[in-house]
Amino acid sequence: MSENLLIDCGYHKGDFSRDFLSVHPSGWEVAAFDPVPVKGSFQHPAVSFSPVAVWTMDGKIDLFLCTRPDGHSIVPGKNNCGPSMDHRVDCIDFSRWLEENASSRDDVKCKMDIEGAEYAVLDCLLTKGTIKHIKELTVEFHWKRLPHGYRKVHHNLLKRLLKVTVIKPWR
Fold first, then answer.
1. Which CATH number, 3.40.50.2300, 1.20.1250.20, 3.40.50.1440, 2.60.40.420, labels domain 4-55+91-169?
2. pTM recorded for the entire structure
């Protein structure tokens, strides 16, 4: 087991992992998560892919399909997404997974592009204290695509995150 772990939440085609591994060609394992596997996505021996949504619990959840294939969301009300129409996907309790898989690592970096679910997931990590395992968080926030009121949620969450980890923008 490598001492370094990159967690790619919202893997899609694997662009972030591909770029990361081109700069860090050895010494890293990649755990990749996305509920919708994409044909032709980046594959590498260091990447372990799980076709699940990152969430706050284990189980199944509705997936709302969007007009763009890289924008599907488990958050109701995200603009450009329609009704779930019986699209159920597996989801994992990311806080539990992080505690079980990252606590003994020297360096853990996380990229999160999970189409609005980042607010509930990151709040859960902060509340349970498992955010402490992530040394660097690269995240794309989607508050502009969510129902009214997420701007305030976004700013409050960002303040809390900045106290405990390094945050880098994604896209």
1. 3.40.50.1440
2. 0.92
